[in-house]
Every structure is written in structure tokens, then in C-alpha cells.
Specification:
By secondary structure, the protein is mostly helical. The protein has a single domain (about 10-160, about 190-365), classed as MFS general substrate transporter like domains (Growth Hormone, Chain: A, Up-down Bundle), CATH 1.20.1250. Helix content is about 80%, strand content about 0%. The chain is built from 15 helices and no strands. It starts with 8 loop residues before the first helix and ends with a helix.
Length: about 375
Amino acid sequence: MLVEAGGNALHIGIMTAIMLGGSSFTQLIFAPFISNYSYKKKFLLVGINARIASLLCLGLMLFFSMKGEYIIWLIFILITFFSLGGAFANVSYTDILGKSIDQSTRKSFFSVKQIVGGLMLLFSALLARKVITLEDFPLNYAYMFLIGFLALFIASIGFWQLKEDRPSRLIIKSPGHFLSIIKTELIQNKRLVYFLGFINTMGVSIALLPFIMLYAKDLYHTQSQDTGLFLLSKVIGSVAIGFMLFVLNKKFKYRYLLYVNIFLVVSIPLFLLISSGPPPFVLIFLIGGVILSIYLISMNGVLLEISNTENRALYTGIAGAGNIIPAIFPILGGWIIERTGYQLFFVLFMFIILLSLFFIYKLDCRK
């Protein structure tokens, strides 16, 4: 959408930074406030409704065909609002999820969640692929955002019905007290330190696909119908790996799953660097869906493993500090692409991903 609106590599970098790293970093700000309350459902609903409102505004803005340079800034503002709503909701969501799902069933739960969500996304991707080719920009994306608004509004009804029975509270009196608690946790729980290192390095992986989309448009002039096909491929990869991990949930360990993910992540830019002909972008986005699913399943599982009921909201906030490099890298990557092209960007990306090998080893995931 941003490319269609006239955005360049730097704009893509800023947008990716907002959606992936920047918004998650704000969890560090939200967590001290939310941790003081025993029940977190109301904060979850505030975050979800912020996302619903931002999707509606995006859809209406594009529907009435606002044009000019300011449309890019309006997109930035509304996507920022959408992303911050997600970060605010995630602190409460992780806390409620952790005290609702028994430890012995978490792997299967995350896998089933990925399958069910993936199947819905598969239907959505088919719909999006159709919608995106019905009209030209901006109407095609306007319809997509309005459909997204309606879908999220319907989905939110389930959260209104949620019953939060178990209290969980960690009193944080002031910013200084919060910093003191963080320092204590980092000293007493070394796995938390390695977890932050893992997110700061491996977290960069989910920033790759937006740049691959730009790469495909810049070098091979892909069209809207190709975008729909790429999205569909990504979702198929996500569903397939979710189903496989559900079947194997009692056999795999997070550590080995993450090692496999590093191999897959590095293989994409390496292939693009050595490829002499048009790359198989459908396959690349299929693998991208696998990478994203493995990262999300593993990250959530490891976070629950190293935390407990009392400090889970706090740890979710602290995990936001693990998004410093994922927040900075897309902006840096966009600048590098604008100045030198894609080669240096891909090399730097692979270097950061390979650093995560150390943190995964030191995490010593037991589950």
C-alpha cells in the first residue's frame, strides 16, 4: 500500500520499524501501569478497540481517495495508532493467556492457535487477492481495510465475553521502582537476558518480507495480482508449519526449532545474492510464512517458560526492550537500500540473524 502511495525504501523501513519493533518497545512503558492491576481484561479491550478504530479510519481515508504527499503521513499516523493498540493489548493478553493455559498443553495450544488463525488467514488471503485486483489504488486497499475493520470488530466480541477468574498483580510504585525491579530480574534470571538478546537479533527476521516485496517491485516490476499471490503463499506456509508442529508438539524443543528457523531465514537473502535469474518469489514467501510462524510460536512459548503468573505482564513489558534492534534495523535497512542497493542490506541482515545462535544456545530451552 505504501509503495502504491508513492513510498520509497526509507518509508518502508520507517513503517516496518513502527509495526514490528517500535510498537513492541512501548510495552516497556505500558507494563508498569498494567501490572498494578489484578485483572487486565479492560486494558485488553482498550487495545483491541484502538486497532478497530484505526482500521476503520484507514479504510475511510482511502475510500474517499485522499491524495498527495500527506496521505503517506496519514498512513504513518494511523498505522502507528494501530500498532500501539496492539502493543498495549499484548501486555494484558500475554498475562491472561499465561494463567489460562496449563503448562503441559502450551505447545499444542500455540500450534492449534496458529492452524486456526492460519486457516482464517488463508481465506482472508484468497479474499484479499480478489479484492486487490478488482479496483485500482486506493479503492482496492480501502475495501481491504474496511473488511479488516469488520472482521476484527466481530472477533472482538469473543474478548468481551472472556472471564478472567485468576488475579495477577505486581505492584510498581514509581518509574524508579520499575527500573529497580528490572535490574533485579536481569540479575536473578540470566535466561531473561539471553531472551532479550534473542529477540534483538532473531526479531529482525520478521522485517525481511516487506523489503522482499519492495525488491520484487523494484527489480522485477511485480503487480497487484502478484502481491495477492505472495500473501497467499505466505499464509499457506504459516498454516502448513502450524499443522506440522501441532502433530509433533510432544517431540520438538524450542531450541532446535529456532536453529531450523535460522537456517531458513539466512537461506532467503543468500539465495537472492547468488541468484542470476528471476527468483521464485512464491516459494520465498511460502518460506517466509514458515519463518514467521516458527518465530511467533517459539517466542511466546519461551516467554511463558521463563516467567511466572506474578511477573508475566512485567516480563512482556521487558521483552519490549528486546525490540531495539528490530525497531532500528528497518530504518537503517531502508537507508542502505536507498544509498547502495540491496547487497549490503542482505549481508548485514544475515550477520545479525547469525548472532542469535549464541543467545539460543545460552537460553537452554528445556521444553
